[in-house]
Amino acid sequence: MGLGDYSHCRQRMSRGLYGVSGRAAVWSPAFHPVHRMPCGTWRIGIEAPEHVQASSPVLEHLRRQLERAFQRAAARGRARRAREAVAAVAAAAAAAREERSRARMECALARLRAELLELRFQNHQLARTLLDLNMKMQQLKKRQDQELASKPQSPQDEEMNSECGSA
Predict the structure, then answer these.
(1) Torsion, Cα of 18, 22, 26, 29 (10° steps)
(2) Residue-wise over 8-34: b if at least 16 C-beta within 10 A, else e?
(3) What are the beta bridge partners of residue 43?
(4) Residue 44's CB: how many other CB atoms inside 10 A?
(5) Which residues, including other chains, have CB under 8 Å from residue 37's CB and lie 6 or more apart?
(6) Hey, is 36 helix, strand or coil?
(7) In angstroms, rounded to a whole number, what is the distance separating the alpha carbons of residues 7 and 13?
(8) Dihedral sign for Cα atoms in the order 106, 110, 115, 121
(9) How far is CA 136 from each of CA 104, 141, 148, rounded to the nearest angstrom?
């Protein structure tokens, strides 16, 4: 490449950006295509020919459609995140309710166990009391039999004992 090869580049630059003929206008900041915020670079405003200006409403319409599509997508994303948050809160509430019901059931079971232990203790006491009473009755019966055997019996007592024994 020689020095003369650069003249072609100079001619292209004089025609404007991207080969569009026209003259440079005021400097304006370039906007980020998605966020519509200045992105730190500058571009030269260019007068465009009629066919480019005529397509400007079409481009503006497409820009608005894209902007609405991004807004809807962002809204759907926010709605999805909100639904997920509500679902997470509902799941946490359900888990808390289940934990409370489990705790109530465990408390009720503990009370039932305590009652059953108390009933078992009372049952053992009653059984011991009954056994003691039975033993005392047997002792009393033996004493009575011994007293009856040691006493001289009258003929009337013998008749009563024989009647009671036969009855």
Answers:
(1) -20
(2) eeeeeeeebeeeeeeeeeeeeeeeeee
(3) 28
(4) 14
(5) 31
(6) coil
(7) 10
(8) positive
(9) 48, 8, 18
Q: Is the pTM of this model over 0.70?
A: no
What digits encode the pLDDT tens for the residues 26-77?
Answer: 444 455 555 555 555 544 444 545 554 557 888 888 889 999 998 988 888 8
Give the count of alpha carbons within 13 A of 115, CB side only.
Answer: 6
pLDDT tens digits, one per residue of 75-121: 888 889 999 999 999 999 999 999 999 999 999 999 999 999 999 99
CB neighbour list of residue 58: distance below 8 Å, 6 or more residues apart:
none
For 60-110, give the DSSP string: HHHHHHHHHHHHHHHHHHHHHHHHHHHHHHHHHHHHHHHHHHHHHHHHHHH
d(CA 29, CA 43): 6
CB 18 within 8 A of CB 46: no
Q: How far apart are the first and last CA of the chain?
A: 149
